[in-house]
Amino acid sequence: MTFFQAALIGIMSCTAASTIACLGTTVGNYTLNRPLVASLIVGIILGDVQGCILVGIPMQIMWIALVTPGGTVASDLRAVSYIGIPLAYVGAKVAGMEFGGADAQGLAGTISAMTGVIGITLFYGTAMMNLIWQHIGWAQLDKGNMEIVGKVDCLFPLISHFVLSFLPCTLLCYYGSGAVQELFSYLDTSVWYVKALLTVGSVLPAVGIAILLKSVISKPTDLIFFVFGFALAASMGLTLLAATAVGAVFALINYQLMMMKAGGVATAAASDDDDEEDI
Predict the structure, then answer these.
(1) 11/23 Cα distance (integer angstroms)
(2) Pick from 40, 37, 41, 35: which is nearest to 10 by CA?
(3) Which of 52, 126, 238, 262 is deepest in the core (most CB within 10 A)?
(4) 3-class SS at 127?
C-alpha cells in the first residue's frame, strides 16, 4: 500500500466519523461509517473492489447490531472500516487466502475485533477534545472575547479531529500494511494456534447476528421467522438481493394479514356498539 492510498483512506475516515458531522450524521455515521459501504470505497482505492467487499462482509455482520437508539452513543466504526478492512485485505492477499473463504473471513473477524478498540479510543478522544474547546470558549466569552465562538465551534474541533482521525488511520494503514505483509509472508497459517485464531474470528459474525436477534425479537416465536429465512436462503442458494426480495414478500403478506385482523376486530366492535344502541 502506498502512502497516497493510505492518505485517501485516512480522509475517508475523517468524513465517516460519528463525532463530527462533516457530511451529516446520515451520510457520515450511518452510511460511510459502515463496513460494507467502506469496503467498496477501500476497494476502489486499493484497486480490488471484489476482494475488499468479500473481506468487509463478515465485519459488517459482526457490527450489524450497532445502532444509535434514542440518545445512546454507540461506538465509532471508522477504525473497523478504514483500518480493519485494508489490513485484513493485505493479510489475506499475502497469505494466499481466498477472500470469500473461511480463513479470510476468520482473519477479517479477528482484525475487526482488534481495530474496534482503536475506534472507541478515537471516538472518545475526539469527544474529549471537543469538550476542552467548549470550556475554553466559555472562559473567553466571560472575558468578552466574541471572536472565539467561531474558532471553538469550527476551527479547533476540525484540527483535533484531523489529528485524532486522519493521522492514526493513515499511519496505521501505511505502516501496518507493511507489518502485516511481513508477518504473513513468514507465518504458517496451517499451525494450530493460527487456525485457532482464525476459527475464533470466524465465529464472531454469529455474535453480531445474535445481538441483532436479541434487539428485534420480542417473543420466542419470532425466532421461527429468522430460522426459516436462514434455512430458505441456505437451501436455495439465494443472493442477498434475492433474499431481500423474498423477505419483503413475506413481510407484505404478514402486514396484510395484520391489517385484515385489525379491520375485523374494528368491524366486530362497531357491530357490538350498534346492537347496544338498538337495545
Answers:
(1) 13
(2) 41
(3) 52
(4) helix
Q: How far apart are CA 230 and CA 155, in angstroms?
A: 49
> Has this prediction a pTM greater than 0.85?
no
What is the rounded distance in angstroms from the CA atom of residue 157 to the CA atom of residue 126? 8
pLDDT over 60 (residue 219): yes
Cα radius of gyration (the chain): 24
User: Is residue 199 exposed (0-12), middle (13-18) or buried (19+ Cβ within 10 Å)?
Assistant: middle
Contact by Cβ (8 Å): 46, 210: no
Q: Which residues are CB-contacts of 112 (< 8 A; sequence separation ≥ 6)?
A: 35, 58, 59, 62, 63, 80, 84, 88, 201, 204
**How far apart are the C-alpha atoms of 201 and 197, rounded to whole Å?**
6
* 16 touches 85 (CB < 8 A): no
Mean pLDDT of the chain: 77
Nearest of 33, 27, 82, 16 to residue 55 by alpha carbon: 82
Torsion angle of alpha carbons 56, 61, 62, 68, nearest 10°?
Answer: 110
DSSP readout, 192-220? HHHHHHHHHHHHHHHHHHHHHHHHH--ST
